[in-house]
UniProtKB/TrEMBL annotation:
Protein name as catalogued: Pentatricopeptide repeat-containing protein
Keyword Lipid biosynthesis annotated: no
PPR repeats: 76-110, 208-242, 309-343, 410-444
Pfam families: E_motif (PF20431), PPR (PF01535), PPR_1 (PF12854), PPR_2 (PF13041)
NCBIfam families associated with the record: PPR
Entry keywords, A to Z: Repeat
Top-rank lineage group of the source organism: Eukaryota
GO molecular-function terms, A-Z: mRNA binding
InterPro entries, per database record: E_motif, PPR_At4g14850-like_plant, PPR_rpt, TPR-like_helical_dom_sf
Species, as recorded: Saponaria officinalis
Length: 635
């Protein structure tokens, strides 16, 4: 154009903003700004501020702030509202509040901008305070502002405040507005009031994808994954198309339910519809495969992701860690340190967990060093993981030093240290630490009691074990779980108090499982209680009819009592079912190489040398002749 006026400049800039070409819009504004033939008004300046906010370009936004001051446009409610919105979108929430507070005049747009900015930046309490101020200032509140306030209640789980806003929305007639109605249902769902949320959702004539997604997500968050899947099926039968967040939620539900087949179908569908490119969907698919043991599939998804965030890295590391693949977990952690974002507490704790479970002390120490580099060495989650790792790797001294270096008392680290001492048989240290922290006001949780009961178990402290066990309900209002009962039953069994152990098994508020009966079986066999041992073995076989260890033990017990026919029947059953008692296995780390071996293994390339060394070791051990009654005649 040979000549350009304010209208032509504004139209072109507006077109680029509407087309999401924010960089081009700002470039055009710069050219307009230096053109002496035209002037900048509050409308075009607001367009440029909108582009800066959407482009997250706070540097240019500050320049525009200066332009508004220079051109005396700062007092315009239109420009002021745009500045508030721009700073909020760029994450400069304090600057956004300052501009708002200094505005000489405010309208519903200004109030909505500051409330929306605060809520989207996570300052829900402050956003609700501004909403209350707006209400008192008698500014006309529109449906969108009500919806934002309800979102703040949902995100902060403030159901009481949400009910108040719900009442106000009814008085204003906004509760029937689809956007407000959907947000109301979301608020009640997120606050755990699923019946309220479902009732409101059912009243919406045409629920949109936001409402459906909110409902499904809420059920997932409340652990009602089966209902979440059912709601997704209802959604698919409606006229509404699910979006990326809907798919991410329902795939998460499949993960929690272990529904791999349905998850795979959803994976195929999101690939077909192009939704797989969404980060939330890719992360949920990868987590599905990790949790369901399909680590190769999870790795393929991870490696083909165009973008990866901290959730992606943490998920893949946790997947390999929890499956016991230490080498792969460490490789992903190293890759993350080189190319990914800063490691999170969760990622580091996951790798430390696998280091501990596989007793890989060297690599555990490397991760410990990395926690210092990223500044996460003093977070409770990481410290607890470090204490547990060192304890499981046999380095209780390092575990104790790590615990003593903690800057504040927290239940998680305390519990880890008590459990560490208990695992190493250091009963006195475990009990002293437990009692010491009780005196300073720390309140134990269920896991802490597992540690202190295990310590009593190691030392055979029956009376003290009873005292701690009874204090769970009497003093700390903790309902004992199967693990706590298991600790007490094991303690009684080791002390030879089989009658008390059997009474506790029969009086538990839930059915004794295979682990409890196995504990009782071992004790009965050790103390020659044959009839009780047979009873325990029969209980175990109800849970696991082909349990090789139990069948072998039962056959041996029958043989020891001269019940040869019963023993022969057990052996025959084992042969017909193909039941073989698996050989024990273990592994060792030598110069960063992991070597696994099983009992009687002759396949190792250095097998001859290994057995020669074993022969030398065995020759130096005094032979002990076992009693015939306790021999296991394994086939």
């Amino acid at each position: 154009m040979p000549q350009r006026d304010e209208v032509s400049w504004t139209n072109v800039i507006s077109g680029h903003v509407n087309a999401s070409n924010y960089g081009e819009a700002l470039g055009l504004f710069s050219r307009m700004w230096v053109d002496p033939t035209v002037g900048v008004d509050n409308f075009v300046l607001s367009l440029a501020l909108k582009a800066s906010g959407l482009d997250n370009n706070v540097v240019y936004g500050r320049l525009l702030h200066g332009v508004s001051l220079k051109n005396s446009l700062i007092d315009s409610v239109f420009v002021g509202s745009s500045l508030v919105d721009m700073y909020a979108k760029c994450g400069e929430i304090s600057e956004s509040c300052r501009v708002f507070d200094e505005m000489p005049e405010r309208n519903v747009v200004s109030w909505t901008a500051i409330i929306t900015g605060l809520v989207k930046c996570g300052y829900c309490k402050e956003g609700l305070q501004y909403f209350s101020d707006m209400w008192r200032s008698r500014v006309h509140c529109d449906a969108y502002c009500f919806a934002i306030a309800l979102k703040a209640c949902a995100d902060s789980y403030d159901v009481e405040h949400g009910k108040e806003i719900h009442t106000q929305a009814i008085k204003r007639g906004f509760n029937a507005t689809p956007y407000v109605a959907n947000t109301l249902a979301t608020m009640y769902n997120k606050c755990g009031k699923l019946d309220y949320g479902m009732c409101l959702f059912g009243r919406i004539r045409t629920p949109d994808v936001v409402g459906w997604t909110s409902l499904i997500t809420s059920y997932v968050q409340m652990g009602r994954d089966d209902i979440a899947v059912q709601q997704f099926i209802l959604l698919r039968n409606s006229d509404v198309s699910p979006n990326e967040y809907t798919f991410a939620a329902v795939i998460s539900a499949c993960t929690h339910l272990g529904k791999l087949n349905l998850g795979e179908q959803l994976h195929a569908h999101v690939i077909k519809t192009g939704v797989m490119d969404a980060l939330s969907v890719a992360n949920s698919v990868m987590t599905l495969y990790s949790r369901c043991g399909r680590l190769n599939s999870a790795s393929v998804v991870f490696r083909t992701m165009t973008r990866k965030d901290i959730v992606s890295w943490s998920s893949i590391i946790a997947g390999y860690s929890q499956a016991g693949y230490a080498k792969e977990a460490f490789e992903f952690l190293s890759w993350m340190r080189r190319e990914g974002p800063k490691a999170t507490e969760f990622a580091l704790a996951s790798v430390l967990s696998v280091s501990g479970s596989m007793a890989i002390l060297k690599q555990g120490k490397q991760v410990h060093a990395n926690t210092f580099k990223v500044g996460l060495d003093h977070t409770p989650l990481v410290q607890s993981a470090l204490i547990t790792m060192y304890s499981k790797c046999g380095s209780i001294r390092d575990a104790s030093e790590t615990y003593n270096s903690t800057t504040s008392d927290d239940v998680v680290s305390w519990t880890s240290m008590v459990n560490g001492f208990a695992e190493h048989g250091r009963t006195q240290d475990a009990i002293e630490l437990f009692e010491k922290k009780l005196e300073v006001g720390l309140t134990p949780d269920a896991v802490t009691f597992i540690g202190v009961l295990s310590a009593c178990n190691h030392a055979g402290l029956v009376d003290l074990g009873y005292r701690y066990f009874n204090s769970m309900t009497g003093k700390f209002n903790i309902t004992p779980s199967k693990e706590h009962y298991g600790c007490m039953i094991d303690l009684l069994c080791k002390a030879g108090k089989l009658v008390e152990a059997e009474n506790m098994i029969n009086s538990m508020p839930f059915e004794a499982d295979e682990v409890v009966w196995s504990t009782f079986l071992r004790a009965c066999r050790a103390h020659g209680e044959v009839e009780r041992a047979i009873h325990a073995a029969e209980k175990i076989l109800k849970f696991n009819p082909t349990c090789a260890g139990t069948l072998t033990t039962l056959a041996n017990i029958y043989s020891a009592k001269g019940k040869w026919r019963e023993a022969a029947d057990i052996r025959k059953l084992m042969r017909s079912k193909g039941v073989i008692k698996e050989a024990g296995s273990s592994w060792i780390e030598i110069e960063d190489e992991f070597t696994a071996f099983v009992s009687g293994d002759r396949t190792h390339p250095n097998g001859d040398l290994i057995y020669n060394v074993l022969d030398l070791l065995i020759s130096g051990v005094d032979a002990t002749v076992p009693e015939v009654d306790t021999l296991l005649f394994d086939e």
